[in-house]
Amino acid sequence: MELQERTIRVDLHTHVLPGVDDGARDLAESLAMLRVAAEDGTGVLVATPHARRCTAAMARQAAELVREASHREAIPVTLELGMEEQLLPDLPERLLAGEALPIGDTGWILVELPDWTVWPEDLAEQLRTIRALGYRPILAHVERYTPIQQEPERILEAIAAGALIQVNADSLFGQNGPAAQRTAAHLLRAAAVSVLASDAHRADWRAPRLRAAFERVRDLVSSELAERLHWAAHAIVRGEDVPPPEPDLPVLHASPSLLERLRSWVGV
């Protein structure tokens, strides 16, 4: 195990490519985001543009532009490429055609619900189809989905179907609303989460920072969980297997107490 691997963080969900979606607006902003990430201790950053807003060719071209510029600027961040795909019926076809990009050269694919207010009845079937094709899904920012906020135990269906669960770093600080903050803390305490990522869109708003979020995980739950999230991100970007989470069912099914709600807000 290299020293660098023990210390740097991996951010698996960002919108850092210039002008392809609702993330970085130009190359200067992309480079500013990389600098913020590097200063915060991130050494590997995965660009995951919204697939419905750009093509794979556009994403590859933009990623190469950012890589070349960051090399000239000597920014110490490795940029990998993926896409944030919606769980729609044509996703298997897009994967087979090379129109949907997994993370780097791995089989890991970042996916999100097309409608955050509705839990798909065929979610498990869709995830199993992706798995059958040789891909491994990561379900993005689950704490922001209304059905999960209302019934956190729904996440068990996604886990059973082979998905890893990702939450956003800024949700732990209330930047996506109190319901997302409460749900993120609840899922972390229940050991249902495998990935912590920034979902960064700007250098100064929803920025690519992870350090404080990992510290919050240590305060809310444990150092052991923070380390597990750290190593899962490293394993994913290397294309390695990550064991599915094993949620604590009594914790997951229980309603957060007033004390737990307060702790999710203040981080103690």
Structure in words:
The protein is α/β, with parallel strands linked by helices and 268 residues long. The chain contains twelve helices and eight strands. Strands 4-5-6-7-8 form a five-stranded parallel β-sheet. A three-stranded parallel β-sheet has the order 1-2-3, with helices on both faces. Strand 1, helix 2 and strand 2 form a beta-alpha-beta unit. Helix 2 crosses helix 3 and helix 9 crosses helix 10. The mean pLDDT is 94.
The major beta sheet can be summarized as: 5 strands, parallel
Cα Rg: 17 Å
- Lateral strand order in the biggest sheet: 4-5-6-7-8
Low-pLDDT parts are none
H/E element order: HEHEHEEHEHEHHEHEHHHH
Number of contiguous helices: 12
Shape: globular
Task: Assess the beta-strand content as a share of residues.
Answer: 5-15%
Mean pLDDT, rounded to whole units?
94
Keywords:
268 residues; three-stranded parallel sheet; alpha/beta; five-stranded parallel sheet; globular
What would you say about this model in short?
The chain contains 12 helices and 8 strands. The protein is of the alpha/beta class and 268 residues long.
Topology:
Layout: H1 3-7, E1 9-14, H2 27-40, E2 42-47, H3 56-72, E3 78-81, E4 84-86, H4 91-97, E5 108-112, H5 123-132, E6 136-139, H6 146-150, H7 155-160, E7 164-168, H8 178-189, E8 195-197, H9 211-220, H10 223-237, H11 249-253, H12 258-266
Parallel strand pairs: 1-2, 2-3, 4-5, 5-6, 6-7, 7-8
Helix pairs in contact: 2-3, 8-12, 9-10
